[in-house]
Amino acid sequence: xxxxxxKVSDAAFDHIKRLRVQEGLDDTYGLRVxxxxxxxxxxxxxxxxxxQEKPGDQVIEDKGVKIFVAMKSLLYLVGTExxxxxxxxxxxxxxxxxxxxxxxxxxxxxxx
Length: 112
Fold this sequence. Notes:
The chain is an alpha+beta fold.
């Protein structure tokens, strides 16, 4: 297991715990983080709950949260911090990605 290739902020960790409870999932469920083509900047972040490692996955753990990432997505995500903001203007998960050269206004897509 590789540590700190993707980090989870305290706020994101707290929200992940709340979402797992709401979804009826135990703490064996982590996050599957991926990057797909799309969005207004060319690449789109995707988050899902998962508890199964797939062939070719890198499994990263931060703050006790397993993060499953396919190698092709990890290339775009090395050094990224997943954060959560609960404010009125911009509620949701946000990626602080040092590899992104440009992001869209909503923060859901980026380019490198």
